[in-house]
Amino acid sequence: DQQVKQNSPSLSVQEGRISILNCDYTNSMFDYFLWYKKYPAEGPTFLISISSIKDKNEDGRFTVFLNKSAKHLSLHIVPSQPGDSAVYFCAASEVWDMRFGAGTRLTVKP
Amino acid sequence: DAGITQSPRHKVTETGTPVTLRCHQTENHRYMYWYRQDPGHGLRLIHYSYGVKDTDKGEVSDGYSVSRSKTEDFLLTLESATSSQTSVYFCAISESHEGYNEQFFGPGTRLTVL
Known about the structure:
By secondary structure, chain A is mainly β. Chain A has strands spanning 4-5, 10-14, 19-25, 32-38, 45-51, 56-59, 62-67, 72-77, 86-94, 97-100, 104-109. Chain A has one domain: Sandwich (Immunoglobulin-like), CATH 2.60.40.10. In chain A, strands 2, 4, 5, 9, 10 and 11 form a six-stranded mixed β-sheet that branches. Chain A has a five-stranded antiparallel β-sheet with strand order 1-3-8-7-6, with no helix packed on it. In chain A, strand 4 (32-38) and strand 5 form a beta hairpin. The mean pLDDT of chain A is 95. Chain B has a single domain, classed as Immunoglobulins (Immunoglobulin-like), CATH 2.60.40. Chain B contains no helices and eleven strands. In chain B, the strands form two sheets. In chain B, strands 2, 4, 5, 6, 9, 10 and 11 form a seven-stranded mixed β-sheet that branches. A four-stranded antiparallel β-sheet of chain B has the order 1-3-8-7, with no helix packed on it. Chain B is globular and about 35 Å long.
């Protein structure tokens, strides 16, 4: 069973606008949530994370929001840039056990 | 970039043949992981290692074995490859195994089993 779900396989936004990527999880024991970015033919790279005791973490253009009651997190990218076009994976960890979502392909159009 | 290499980067093999994938790191990180990436599933953990000769199973370990004889090398073996093992395989490393657990990934190995 998938404990981490990204229900939108793809998202297309205009350059300069906001990109919002969503992720839902089922396991209430997850204590850290992470976002990874992946370009074609490369491995995923870490983008931003949030502890389960927080509800928001910001790093430059990237902000992650966590709603524990809804078991939902989202990644906001503002403003979106063409270089942000990639596949974004949501991940959730409980100690060593990290579970990934299926990914959302973001396309930022110039 | 974290020093992680994977070899080979691409491999085509036939059903029933053994296959070994290699992950090599220069970061001296204690923890190493093997994942497979498949459409609709994201990345799924196959096996991980928490030290030399210390390994454990992940979510999708059936049909795979691993070995770690040196800190820097983590090998993934498919004893008898099947078509369902066609996938992209990623190795990852991390310093910490608990809490904030950023992992650094290698470039991946694309394996095709005919």
